[in-house]
Design brief:
Strand order of the largest sheet: 3-29-30-31-32
Radius of gyration: 30 Å
Number of strands: 35
Helix content: 10-25%
Largest sheet: 5 strands, mixed
Structural class: alpha+beta
Length: about 600
Amino acid sequence: MKTGKSPYNTIRLLENISFGSGVFALVLCVLIIVNFIQIKRADPLNTTTMTALVEKLQNNPENGQVRQEIRTLDLLARKAFFTTQWQVRTGGYLLFISILILISSIKIIELIRIKLPEEPQGKPVMFWEIRIHKRKWLMYSGAGMVVLTLLLAWLTHNEMGKDLQFAMSPLTGSRIQDAGSPNPHPESSIPHPASGIRDSATVIRDSASGIQSPASSYPSWQEIRSNFPSFRGPGGIGITERNSIPTSWDARSGKNVKWKTYIPLPGYNSPVIWNDRIFLSGASETKREVYCLDAVTGKMLWKTPVEKIPGSPSQAPGVSKETGQAAPSLTTDGRRVYAIFANGDLIALDMDGKPVWSKNLGVPANHYGHSSSLIMYRDVLIIQFDQRGGAAVMGLSGKTGEQVWKTSRNVKISWASPSLINTGNRMELVLSAEPCVAAYDPLSGKELWKLDCISGEVGPSLAYANGIVFSVNEYSTLSAVRIGETPKVLWENNEFLSDVPSPVATDKYLFLVTSYGTAVCYDAVSGTKYWEHDFGNPVYSSPMLAEGRIYLMDKKGMMFIFKAGKEFSPVSECPLGEGSFCTPAFTTGHIFLRGDKNLYCIGK
């Protein structure tokens, strides 16, 4: 007598498994579809209660109880958001697994059934053909429903992310964005009571949990995006999200000039801004200073000499007159401000100008002078120190100045500044120097990827948009690099190249300006050249993108404003009245321009 399981029992077991998996998948489909409909109908982050509380706070900004109620409600809403997001993601995974089990069971059953059973007595001749046809119809319908459900699950996850990113901040009046969100979007901000400049009494939102105190160890990504904390703005990529930016002024006649302040020492660094404070530096061969100005009035709030730095050389290094002793722009995290000079002196000051820590990194072996600007990520101060014989990038503790990490680089001298880009999955620190563009983890210094695509002593910094990094250098090439674990060059061009101004990009266009004053627009993805325009004067300032317009300052101080589009469309030309090498900085309704001798605030 034979023992063992009958194939019919195995088939019956597999049929039960497939039936259970199918029912489970059907239930998940229904739940995900219902959840999608509910998400589309309701906005959990902008409720009637929240709106009422916001209006109440606007009428009485000093009401601490209402402010606390808003914080509590906001935090609860965001906790619910992350819980629902987890549920949708988990439901999608379970649906996928149940479909795999269902398909696997059916396929095994088909393998066990070697042939169809004899035609049942009394059944029509086409019985099995009809049965197979119905089974196919059922499978196609089920597959269609599963595909639709998975699509809706993805859309739900995506829409919820957008809702969180663009939800209105009840305490600041500006939109919030999670730190993992890839694309920047325009924001509004509270106007200053007297001038329209952002109020310094800002409540900070953390990307993960909602409210964050200004006293925390590092700023949220939203806090950074709401300010202008480094060279070329947040992330150092030449884009500002401020609005109501002026397009007409004449500093010679005083038209739309709110104030002008003399800066004691020369410097080619650009202003950086945190709330209502502007920071910049100046230096000669014998003196180095950091300045803080009131953004509303232009008054010099404090001036701190940089002196008695441990290890500082007794004599300033020889530098090019077009670089000077104070070329690198400062950076700030709203807790401290950081400055570096051509002799390697590095200093951190609190917001009142008092030294927190200082050190000398060694005189950079750089025949033109050090010019790479500083940038912050969280509480790490990042320094690109590409010099002869010892190129490196390093991260220091913003609080203490202690070295957090240091990564040696096999590159040549570079004057380019670092950029921080949000890929959607992570933050990457991206640098450019012969022979490569390379990305690093800003918290550890670990190299993430590298691609050889550039040569020469690199001056321009990188541009970035839509997953593409753009590098350029004179006598080298312009390269568009699709970033990732295995980066690749999308296109190259060597018709127009820059040796000083950095390019700027949108999702559609790349704008490049040569140092002799020719601007060029390319298709960002294909490299097709759309137009070129010669402005007639040399340019060292980098173009900035604001509200769909490009702001470009030539060395004589003339600001050229044109639309960021497929065709060259000029908006205006605005004279500063003195020469300028520096890139403009922006707040809502204002532009800050550093000339050879003065700092200007432009605004209506």
